[in-house]
Design a protein that fits this description.
This protein has four helices and four strands. It has helices spanning 16-30, 59-75, 90-95, 102-105; strands at 3-10, 36-44, 49-56, 81-87. The chain has a single domain (3-105), classed as 2-Layer Sandwich (Alpha-Beta Plaits), CATH 3.30.70.100. It is of the alpha+beta class. This is Monooxygenase. GO terms for molecular function: monooxygenase activity. Pfam families: ydhR (PF08803).
Length: 108
Protein backbone atom coordinates (compact mmCIF):
# COMPACT_ATOMS: atom_id res chain seq x y z
CA UNK A 1 0.00 0.00 0.00
CA UNK A 2 1.32 3.45 -0.88
CA UNK A 3 1.71 6.08 1.79
CA UNK A 4 0.95 9.79 1.59
CA UNK A 5 3.10 12.25 3.54
CA UNK A 6 1.82 15.77 4.21
CA UNK A 7 4.38 18.35 5.38
CA UNK A 8 3.96 22.05 6.12
CA UNK A 9 5.85 24.74 7.99
CA UNK A 10 5.92 28.49 8.52
CA UNK A 11 7.72 30.05 5.57
CA UNK A 12 8.09 33.72 4.65
CA UNK A 13 9.29 33.20 1.10
CA UNK A 14 10.29 33.52 -1.60
CA UNK A 15 7.29 32.05 -3.41
CA UNK A 16 6.33 31.13 -6.97
CA UNK A 17 8.92 31.33 -9.71
CA UNK A 18 11.50 32.92 -7.41
CA UNK A 19 11.19 29.92 -5.09
CA UNK A 20 11.38 27.54 -8.06
CA UNK A 21 14.58 29.18 -9.25
CA UNK A 22 16.19 28.86 -5.85
CA UNK A 23 15.09 25.29 -5.09
CA UNK A 24 15.37 23.49 -8.44
CA UNK A 25 18.40 21.45 -7.37
CA UNK A 26 16.64 20.45 -4.14
CA UNK A 27 13.58 19.39 -6.14
CA UNK A 28 15.76 17.30 -8.44
CA UNK A 29 17.49 15.62 -5.49
CA UNK A 30 14.15 14.60 -3.95
CA UNK A 31 13.56 12.35 -6.98
CA UNK A 32 16.37 10.12 -5.70
CA UNK A 33 14.98 9.60 -2.21
CA UNK A 34 14.29 5.93 -1.43
CA UNK A 35 10.66 4.98 -1.93
CA UNK A 36 9.54 8.39 -3.22
CA UNK A 37 7.02 8.18 -6.08
CA UNK A 38 6.08 11.87 -6.49
CA UNK A 39 5.85 15.20 -4.71
CA UNK A 40 3.50 18.15 -5.12
CA UNK A 41 5.02 21.36 -3.75
CA UNK A 42 2.62 23.54 -1.74
CA UNK A 43 2.87 27.20 -0.79
CA UNK A 44 0.69 29.96 0.57
CA UNK A 45 2.14 33.45 0.43
CA UNK A 46 -0.98 34.77 2.20
CA UNK A 47 -0.64 32.37 5.14
CA UNK A 48 3.19 32.30 5.02
CA UNK A 49 3.37 28.50 4.63
CA UNK A 50 5.49 26.12 2.61
CA UNK A 51 5.34 22.37 2.30
CA UNK A 52 4.48 19.42 0.14
CA UNK A 53 2.39 16.35 -0.45
CA UNK A 54 4.39 13.20 -1.21
CA UNK A 55 3.52 9.67 -2.26
CA UNK A 56 5.88 6.94 -1.03
CA UNK A 57 6.03 3.22 -1.73
CA UNK A 58 5.86 2.33 1.96
CA UNK A 59 5.56 3.74 5.48
CA UNK A 60 9.22 3.13 6.34
CA UNK A 61 10.36 5.28 3.40
CA UNK A 62 7.89 8.04 4.28
CA UNK A 63 8.98 8.12 7.92
CA UNK A 64 12.67 8.07 7.02
CA UNK A 65 12.18 10.96 4.59
CA UNK A 66 10.17 12.95 7.13
CA UNK A 67 12.96 12.60 9.72
CA UNK A 68 15.66 13.60 7.22
CA UNK A 69 13.62 16.47 5.76
CA UNK A 70 12.71 17.81 9.21
CA UNK A 71 16.41 17.93 10.15
CA UNK A 72 17.28 19.63 6.83
CA UNK A 73 14.56 22.27 7.28
CA UNK A 74 15.67 22.96 10.85
CA UNK A 75 19.21 23.52 9.52
CA UNK A 76 17.65 26.06 7.12
CA UNK A 77 16.12 27.93 10.07
CA UNK A 78 12.61 26.45 10.06
CA UNK A 79 11.63 26.13 13.73
CA UNK A 80 8.63 23.77 13.49
CA UNK A 81 7.90 21.17 10.81
CA UNK A 82 4.49 19.52 10.82
CA UNK A 83 4.37 16.11 9.14
CA UNK A 84 1.59 13.53 8.93
CA UNK A 85 1.68 10.09 7.37
CA UNK A 86 -1.48 8.56 5.87
CA UNK A 87 -2.43 5.28 4.25
CA UNK A 88 -3.95 5.74 0.77
CA UNK A 89 -7.34 4.25 -0.07
CA UNK A 90 -6.56 3.43 -3.69
CA UNK A 91 -10.06 2.23 -4.63
CA UNK A 92 -11.68 5.55 -3.75
CA UNK A 93 -8.74 7.65 -4.98
CA UNK A 94 -8.93 6.07 -8.44
CA UNK A 95 -12.65 6.98 -8.67
CA UNK A 96 -11.63 10.62 -8.14
CA UNK A 97 -8.69 10.53 -10.59
CA UNK A 98 -6.08 10.49 -7.81
CA UNK A 99 -2.56 10.53 -9.32
CA UNK A 100 -1.81 6.94 -8.35
CA UNK A 101 -1.40 3.67 -10.16
CA UNK A 102 -3.72 0.92 -8.95
CA UNK A 103 -1.19 -1.87 -9.40
CA UNK A 104 1.52 -0.15 -7.35
CA UNK A 105 -0.96 0.84 -4.61
CA UNK A 106 -2.65 -2.48 -4.03
CA UNK A 107 0.48 -4.48 -3.21
CA UNK A 108 0.25 -5.77 0.37
Amino acid sequence: MSILLQVDFDYSGPFGEEMAGMLTSLAESINHEPGMIWKIWTESEQDKLGGGIYLFEDKASANAYLAMHTARLKEMGIAEVRGKVFDVNSSLSIINQGPIEKLSIDKP
